[in-house]
Amino acid sequence: MNFVVGIVLPLFVISIWMLFIAPKSLFEINKILCLTIEVILFSIVSYFIYNKISSNFGVIYFIFILLNSGLNWLNNLNQNH
Questions:
Q1: Which of 16, 22, 75, 76 is in the most buried spot, having the most CB atoms within 10 Å?
Q2: pLDDT score at 80
Q3: What Rg do the C-alpha atoms of the chain give, in angstroms?
Q4: What span, in angstroms and rounded, lies between the C-alpha atoms of 74 and 6?
Q5: What average pLDDT does the structure give for the chain?
Q6: What is the mean pLDDT of residues 10-34?
Q7: What's phi and psi for 4, nearest 5 deg?
Q8: What does the DSSP 8-state code read for residue 12?
Q9: What are the phi and psi torsion angles at 68 (to 5°)?
Q10: Which residue, 25, 22, 9, 30, is CA-closest to 80?
Q11: Structure confidence at residue 59 (pLDDT)
Q12: Burial class of residue 43 in the structure, from the number of CB atoms within 10 Å of its CB (0-12 exposed, 13-18 middle, 19+ buried)
C-alpha cells in the first residue's frame, strides 16, 4: 500500500494534471470538467492528509481547495464576459 500511495498515486495525479489541467495541457476541456478534475485530485490529497498527518490539517486544506477553486472559476467566468 505504501508503494501505491508513495509512487503510483503521485505519478497518476501528475499525469492527469499534465494532460488536462495544466495551462499548456495536451487536451482542451471545458471549464466545469477542469474544475471537477482539479477538485477531485486535490480532494485525494486532502483525504491522505486527513488520514496520515492530521484531521485538522486535512479539513483546512480541503476548505482552501474549495475556496481557491471557486475563486479561480469565478475569475475565469469574469474574463470570458
A1: 16
A2: 66
A3: 14
A4: 34
A5: 85
A6: 86
A7: -65, -45
A8: H
A9: -65, -45
A10: 30
A11: 93
A12: middle
The residue with cell 475563486 is 71
> 10: which 3 cell numbers?
503521485
Cell numbers for 40, please give them: 477531485
DSSP-based helix, strand, coil % in the chain, nearest 5? 85, 0, 15
* The predicted structure's pLDDT at residue 63: 94
Angle of helix 55-80 relative to helix 31-48, nearest 10 degrees, comes to 170
8-19 mean pLDDT: 87
CA distances for 26 relative to 38, 63, 67, angstroms: 16, 29, 27
DSSP state of 81: -
Taking the C-alpha atoms of residue 14 and residue 25, their distance in angstroms, rounded to an integer, is 12
For the four alpha carbons of 74, 18, 61 and 51, in that order, the dihedral sign comes to: positive
